[in-house]
Specification:
CATH topology: Four Helix Bundle (Hemerythrin (Met), subunit A)
Oligomer: single chain
Organism: Haloarcula japonica (strain ATCC 49778 / DSM 6131 / JCM 7785 / NBRC 101032 / NCIMB 13157 / TR-1)
Number of strands: 2
InterPro entries: DUF420 (IPR007352)
Protein name: DUF420 domain-containing protein
Pfam families: DUF420
Largest sheet: 2 strands, antiparallel
Strand order of the largest sheet: 1-2
Strand content: under 5%
Keywords: Membrane, Transmembrane, Transmembrane helix
């Protein structure tokens, strides 16, 4: 218990540092997977497809948890808000693990579409990726503040403002990721790239 209290105390005193460290570790894992630096096994095509489907399920549930968290805080149900947002954050950690396995141990898919559909898909995918990258430190900062301060203390921090930005960027990123997943896997189809 003393170790947990010490860690919480240090994170409370330096939430921006904790945010930076956690964000850098997350970015390093993703870039390591993309760059082939992480020693990941190569998976079968079927398993990579299964990972993609699992990611879509995890992200759908995370988006629902975020929406529930927004509803709860708007109705002043702080404990339910906290539970919903920590659920969403935990699911994003699960997503990260699945995504690293999928990217590092599999292959990329390219949508079978042309013209407007292809352009719309690429634009949505680009916005999804950009928002995913940008939202990491904002989401982590909101979570660090939420875990290290009481509800009364949070009113004196930037938690609410950072949380609104995090929910907007994170929620839109998840939504666009799900739309592109459906387009790629269930509407237009794909070919390996």
């Amino acid at each position: 218990m003393a170790v947990a209290d010490t860690l919480q105390s240090r994170a409370r005193a330096r939430p921006r540092l904790v945010t930076a460290v956690v964000s850098v570790v997350g970015y390093a894992l993703v870039f390591g997977a993309f760059g082939g630096v992480l020693p990941l096994p190569e998976f079968s095509k079927d398993f990579v497809i299964l990972l993609g489907d699992a990611i879509a399920v995890v992200n759908s549930i995370a988006l629902l948890a975020i929406i529930a968290g927004v509803y709860f805080i708007k109705n002043n149900q702080v404990q339910k808000h906290r539970a919903a947002m920590l659920t969403a954050f935990t699911l994003i950690m699960v997503f990260l693990a699945l995504y690293i396995l999928k990217v590092g141990g599999g292959f990329e898919k390219e949508i079978v579409a042309e013209g407007f559909v292809w352009t719309a898909y690429i634009v949505m995918l680009a916005i999804h990726i950009l928002l995913s990258a940008v939202s990491v430190p904002v989401v982590v900062h909101a979570v660090v503040l939420g875990l290290t301060h009481s509800p009364a203390e949070l009113r004196e921090t930037i938690h609410a403002r950072v949380g609104r930005i995090a929910v907007s960027a994170w929620g839109l990123s998840l939504f666009l990721g799900l739309v592109t997943y459906v387009m790629l896997n269930h509407i237009y189809g794909w070919v390996p790239r």
